[in-house]
Amino acid sequence: MDQFDNHYSPKELRTTVSYIRQIIGDYKPGIGIILGTGLSAVAEQIDVHHTINYDEIPHFPVSTVESHSGKLIFGQLQGKSVVAMQGRFHYYEGYSMQQVAWPVRVLKAIGISCLLISNAAGALNPEFQKGSLMLINDHINFLFNNPLIGKNQEEWGPRFPDMNEPYSVELQSVFTKAAQKLNISLQKGVYAAMQGPMLETRVEYAMLRKLGADAVGMSTQPEVAVAKHIGLQCAAVSVLTDECNPETLQPVTLQEIIETAGKAEKILVRLINEVIKNLDMKNP
Ligand code: HPA
């Protein structure tokens, strides 16, 4: 590996995919779901066909955060074939950006044509309350790195991917309609991706708000960058676990964040179920 090596090659992708294929046979999930911190309940709804632990998959990073259990779950949800990532990788854990987003390349190679992402985030917009959901309509990358840096694999995607519509407008409308139908309040806004692992300072929250962000977290941008690179439609929802208002800021612990995520995930589960039910897989 030299300084222009971006860690993964098409050969490695073939190795990873053929290992997974040995286990799942010709099972072809159309929808990928990434479950964020404290948000694994969606996986419990899946009628499971196969489960594969990350640590047995060649070239797959292994989770280090205790709140993430680390497995791929293949099965049926609302009559559709899905694969859920229970546990995701964060830049703050020390992985390279390419490792963080690698599973997205793998899921696409296994057949998904649509990626639904969830995360836990802090609310910056003072009108957004903790415990509610926000559909991400754009993001600002404050990770100061991204998974597309390095040699470009032309067979995977273009050198300069367009980011005009990072989150599929069509999928956003499926989410909006599902929320309306279920009477779920779904905010919409801009997600600021920060490195972490420390939460932000009061002044950083004020800055992010001024720059136009409505929520802040430590994930999602890398996966979305790769999804755009490989032409995969995606949508992302933040569960707002704490309020990041500089004037009224209170200390918050991971425990509290996970507890709030746990309460809100019941709503997320209903929303994701309804979205999946309504997805037209020929044109998701
Ligand atoms: N920052 C602040 N609050 C949060 C975050 C974050 O990255 N993630 C979840 N709540």
How would the blueprint of this fold be written?
Blueprint: H1 10-24, E1 31-35, H2 41-44, E2 47-53, E3 71-77, E4 80-86, H3 97-110, E5 114-123, E6 133-142, H4 169-182, E7 186-194, H5 202-210, E8 215-217, H6 221-229, E9 233-243, H7 254-278
Parallel strand pairs: 1-4, 1-5, 5-9, 6-7, 7-8
Antiparallel strand pairs: 2-3, 3-4, 5-8, 6-9
Helix pairs in contact: 1-3, 3-6, 4-7
The structure holds hypoxanthine.
Task: For this entry, give a set of tags.
5-stranded mixed barrel; 32% helix; 9 strands; 284 residues; Rossmann fold; alpha/beta; single chain; 7 helices; binds hypoxanthine
Write a structural description:
With 284 residues, the protein is of the alpha/beta class. It has a single domain, classed as Rossmann fold (3-Layer(aba) Sandwich). The protein is built from seven helices and nine strands. Helix 3 packs across helix 6. The longest helix has 25 residues. It starts with 9 loop residues before the first helix and ends in a 6-residue tail after the last helix. The model has no long low-confidence stretch (mean pLDDT 92). It binds hypoxanthine. The site of hypoxanthine (HPA) has 14 residues, from strand 5, strand 8 and strand 9.
